[in-house]
Every structure is written in C-alpha cells, then in structure tokens.
Specification:
Radius of gyration: 19 Å
CATH architecture: Orthogonal Bundle
Strand content: under 5%
Helix content: over 70%
Number of helices: 12
Structural class: mainly alpha
CATH topology: Farnesyl Diphosphate Synthase
Number of strands: 0
Low-confidence stretches: 1-5
Length: 300
C-alpha cells in the first residue's frame, strides 16, 4: 500500500506534503490575529504585515523541511505512520530536503531583515533566535524537540512572537490585546503539535525521540490538549471582560462546538483518526483568528 502511494506521488506533491500544509494555520493565524489588533487600533501597515506573514510562513516551512531531514538522518521516522515524508520515503534525496530547509529559512531571514530595518533593528535579534531555534528543533547535536521542549518553542515563536510581533511592527508597541492573541494562538499551535506527537507516540518512543507526549503518556497529553484549548477559548473572553478589547472579540468562545469533537477523537489510537483530529485542530485555529478579527473590527 505504501509503495503504491509513493508511486502515485509527483515530485511536486511530495514537496507539498513535506511542507505539511495542514499545519500552516499555525503560522498564518497568529499573524492575522496580530494584524487585527493593529487594524482595531488604526495603526495597520499592509507592507509590514505582509512581511511578517512571509516570515512566519517561511519559518514554518523551513522548520517542517528541517524536521523531515533531521528525523530521517536520526532514523526517527522509519516506522512513521503519518503522511509520507520526503527524505525517509526515498522519493527526494535528503540533501535536497536540507537545502530546501535552508532556502526557506533564508527567505524568512531576508523578509525579517527588511521588516526590522523598516521598524526596529532589535527585531533582528529575535529573528536570529527564531531561525536558530527552528533548525535546532530536531537538528544539531542535541535537538530540543527530542527532549520534550517542542511545545515551548511553538508557543513562543508561533504564538507570542508571531502575533505580538505582527502588532509591534505595525504599532511599535504591544498592547494587551496582542498578548491575548499570542497566548491563544500559541496554545492552539501547541495543541496541533500535541496531537501530532500523540499520533507518533509509539514510533517516537521506539526511535528515542522523547517528545512531551512520550514523556507524559497518552492520558496526560490529552489533558494537556484540553487545557490548551480551554485557554485559547477563554483568553479573548477574559480580555473582553478586562476591557482590553470589544466584547464581541470574545466570539472565539463559540468554537467549543468544534473543540469537543476533536478532543474526543484524540481518545483513539488509530493514526487516521488522529490525522483527522490534527487537521480539524488546525481549522479551529483558522476560525479563532477569523472570529477574533471579526469581533475586533465589526462595530456593534
């Protein structure tokens, strides 16, 4: 079955799958949420926001390609049950995957340099940290993704930095609403990663990849996901009650109707069910950003 699947894939399709498009919501959504704050504050600057978006998407694609390459080199995905990886499948030479990761990080660095020079040079420091953290997630002599620290990286760089950073390049300040967006989207991105690691818990453990899910087990991983979803849905409500944002910005709380089925799906140990849960979790983050934006921008 796997060999038939490989034979049916074009080179372009292999590269697309390696970029993991289902999870790109984790880079787009926080930028949208941060830009919505700037729009609400009448400080939106389209070119800088587009630059921030390019940085975020290129960073995530770079991280995904780097993970593809590094996991192959370490043998961490030899028995992987998820979507086909480019390097480990044998369909793409590993060195090409490594170069693709470097290329994506270079694009992110170039866009980040342009945004930094147009706003605040100190952002260069954060950008350098982000690129280094992206590569060292599963690369380098001691990858921290193998030590159970992946969620921390995702929360900081695909939550706080992406959302609050987008607001900052527009306003040159970070209001409380931007931190709210960063915390919420960071939690949702972590939930996506937790579901991914829950799916791979057996194969990761066998390969010595000690993700947080491997370390704390299935039951506690599911509890962690419940907390992450709860924080993401309650954060805008708390911000609205605190007067940081309009009351309509609490709209994302209605996503509980989407969260509950996803949480139930994670009780399964079947990879296809968990892959479906991961895709639905990514969709929840997209809807969170859209509802947050609607609540901030629509007068009532």
């Amino acid at each position: 079955m796997v060999e038939q699947q490989k034979a049916s894939l074009s080179p372009g399709r292999v590269w697309l799958l390696a970029a993991r498009p289902a999870t790109l919501a984790a880079s787009v959504s926080p930028v949208v949420a941060g830009a919505a704050v700037a729009l609400h504050d009448h400080a939106f600057r389209a070119p800088l926001t587009l630059g921030a978006l390019l940085v975020a998407v290129a960073m995530q694609v770079g991280v995904n390609y780097a993970n593809d390459y590094s996991d192959h080199v370490r043998g961490a995905d030899r028995r992987r049950v998820g979507p086909i990886r480019a390097a480990s499948s044998g369909l793409v030479p590993p060195d090409q995957v490594r170069l693709a990761a470097i290329g994506a990080f270079t694009i992110a660095a170039g866009a980040g340099l342009a945004v930094s020079l147009a706003t605040d040079w100190r952002l260069l420091i954060l950008g350098a940290l982000a690129v280094a953290a992206g590569w060292l997630y599963t690369g380098g002599p001691r990858p921290y993704g193998y030590l159970g620290l992946g969620e921390l990286f995702v929360f900081v760089f695909f939550g706080l930095f992406a959302a609050a950073g987008t607001t900052y390049v527009n306003e040159l300040r970070v209001p409380p609403a931007a931190w709210t967006a960063g915390v919420a989207t960071g939690c949702l991105a972590c939930a996506i990663l937790a579901i991914n690691n829950l799916r791979d818990i057996a194969t990761d453990a066998a390969a010595g990849k000690r993700t947080l899910a491997v370390r704390i087990g299935r039951s506690w991983t599911r509890r962690l996901m419940a907390v992450l979803f709860a924080v993401a849905l309650l954060a805008p409500l708390a911000a609205a009650l605190g007067g940081w944002v309009p009351r309509l910005a609490a709209l994302p709380v209605i996503l509980v109707t989407m969260v509950v089925p996803v949480a139930r799906s994670t009780a399964s140990t079947e990879p296809p069910e968990l892959v479906g849960a991961l895709k639905r979790a990514a969709l929840i983050e997209v809807w969170w950003a859209l509802l947050w934006t609607l609540g901030l921008l629509v007068p009532w």
